[in-house]
Structure to design on (264 residues):
């Protein structure tokens, strides 16, 4: 009887330990799995060979367009924010003063009218605006940027939130670093990416523990991406491990007391 109780306690302790721990393999990024495409990268060559695609503008994106000309009066006509005022352009003011793309893919420029920019890249949009303004002004310096240029990171990360993309090319590891990295109980083998497209949101899944991510189209983050770090199956157990430990401790105490009275 005593041996049987000992086995029960040992089994419960082993279950508690192994269900509440995460292995080193589950936490390690960029492990080699042999899934490289030989045309892209060899076993001993970890260079990134994927070329990030340019973002295509979509309806409800907001553009910031700045036009600078030798004549300040002409600049004032085309700028929603006066050039040379020294004011600071915040995210909120840029969204209010920017040019929203309507559902048809058009923006409406003052004194010019609608320009079709949906499905175009920022560089292509700059060319369109530049060629259009040549009919009105010469020697204009034009800047076109996205106002809603963010990535959202949610789930099992230390600092979930919405973060601005401060440069054109940010990879998934740089994005996750802005969110304080993944938590221990984040499933690094199954990270989900929700990416907007012309036909609607697209959900894709990838692994951060496999080096093949370096040659994947998902390696670089696009504007308005949502990265969702899923929890591992043991996450719920880990959250309640203190409760389970208390229960196990109570059972152990009960069996010890019960054994004491049985032997006396």
């Amino acid at each position: 009887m005593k041996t049987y109780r000992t086995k029960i306690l040992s089994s419960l302790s082993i279950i508690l330990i192994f269900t509440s721990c995460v292995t080193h393999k589950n936490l390690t990024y960029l492990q080699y799995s042999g899934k490289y495409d030989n045309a892209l990268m060899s076993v001993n060559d970890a260079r990134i060979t994927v070329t990030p695609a340019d973002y295509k503008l979509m309806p409800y994106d907001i553009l910031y367009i700045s036009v600078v000309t030798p004549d300040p009066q002409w600049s004032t006509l085309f700028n929603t924010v006066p050039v040379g005022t020294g004011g600071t352009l915040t995210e909120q003011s840029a969204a209010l003063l920017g040019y929203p793309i309507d559902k048809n893919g058009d923006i409406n420029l003052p004194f010019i009218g609608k320009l079709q920019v949906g499905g175009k890249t920022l560089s292509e949009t700059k060319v369109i605006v530049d060629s259009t303004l040549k009919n009105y002004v010469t020697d204009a310096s034009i800047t076109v940027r996205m106002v809603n240029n963010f990535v959202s990171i949610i789930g099992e990360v230390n600092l979930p939130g919405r973060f601005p993309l401060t440069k054109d090319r940010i990879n998934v590891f740089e994005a996750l670093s802005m969110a304080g990295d993944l938590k221990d109980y984040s499933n690094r083998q199954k990270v989900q990416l929700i990416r907007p497209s012309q036909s609607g949101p697209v959900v894709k899944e990838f692994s951060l523990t496999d080096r093949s991510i370096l040659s994947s189209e998902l390696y670089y983050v696009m504007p308005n991406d949502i990265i969702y770090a899923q929890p591992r199956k043991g996450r719920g157990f880990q959250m309640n491990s203190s409760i389970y430990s208390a229960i196990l401790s109570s059972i152990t105490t009960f069996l010890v007391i019960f054994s004491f009275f049985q032997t006396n």
